[in-house]
Amino acid sequence: MARVISVEAERFPIAGTFTISRGSKTEAEVISCTISDGGHFGRGECVPYKRYGETIEGVREAIDAMRGRIAEGISRSALLDAMPAGAARNAIDCALWDLEAKLSGTSVAVAIGAVPLQALETAYTLSLGEPEAMAAQARVNAARPLLKVKIGGDNDIARIRAVRQAAPDSRIILDANEGWSDDNIVANLAFAAEQSIALIEQPLPAGHDEILRHIAHPVPICADESVHEAKNLEALVGLYDAVNIKLDKSGGLTAALVLRDRARELGFGVMVGCMVGTSLAMAPAVLLAQHADFVDLDGPLLLARDRVPGLVYQGSLVSPPDTALWG
């Protein structure tokens, strides 16, 4: 019997508003796909990202275009050659992993050598806003051990100061989303170091970050928009200290595992992050993130409504997925 894929665009409301340097949104727009093989099925979810030229319609069309190959039983390794990295390939790849686990009776965690699985401490993200508003967010979440703070404007030193004062005991990641410039990065890095910031994500626009090779890194700097696949890594040596691996960028768990292992070989720290999606999108990333240096898989915590069943979060600890969800 040929495999059959179904595709669905879904919307999940965000609790409040999620704001970064590129804009705000009040809902997570995701695409889920299900691949059926007889009485078994596997699921995957992706989040199209405008920054990379993706749209809901375009990603759905890219998945639909693979119907014939999926019916023929395309493998995950062949999928890497058949589709470019990105959200569409991620949804298919994760659905294939889930399907393989159900067909074989071997969990994905066992298949990738991630056992024994552990609960992970995830960052919790604070949206970009004026310093006072960000301080209020930080104060509410000051008991969380790791905060990820969206910045990337003209007043970032004030934002950093306000958040640090409101959450003095939390480790803090700053995520500028390409919002800094050659003119302010040295001063911003120095102030971040004074405030004991743990990590800074993608301070400069991808491809316009050569200055990072020539300035001090008093706080480790992590590539996000600058890295999608393992082939991107060698060019980043000397520019960045760590890389943020997201399944929607790498195009699935298969490519993300290669990226993670190559990053370790080259001496990069590893962060596993996410777009704002549901527990179905986070589940494979939780397996990938075992033993990562930083984990940012708080997507479901930012939603007003998640899938059922979903991942279990206790404060900032996220437990491995139950196989009823994925894998």
From TrEMBL:
Q: Where does Mg(2+) bind?
A: D175, E201, D224
One Gene Ontology MF term: racemase and epimerase activity, acting on amino acids and derivatives
Q: What SUPFAM superfamilies would the database entry show? A: Enolase C-terminal domain-like (SSF51604), Enolase N-terminal domain-like (SSF54826)
The cofactor required is:
Mg(2+)
Residues annotated as catalytic: K150, K246
In the Enzyme Commission scheme, what number(s) does this protein have? 5.1.1.-
Span-the-membrane segments of this chain are none
Q: Name one Pfam family in it.
A: MR_MLE_N
Name the protein family.
Answer: Belongs to the mandelate racemase/muconate lactonizing enzyme family.
Q: Which NCBIfam families match?
A: racemase_DgcA
**Protein name in UniProt:** Dipeptide epimerase
* Native source organism of the sequence: Mesorhizobium ciceri biovar biserrulae (strain HAMBI 2942 / LMG 23838 / WSM1271)
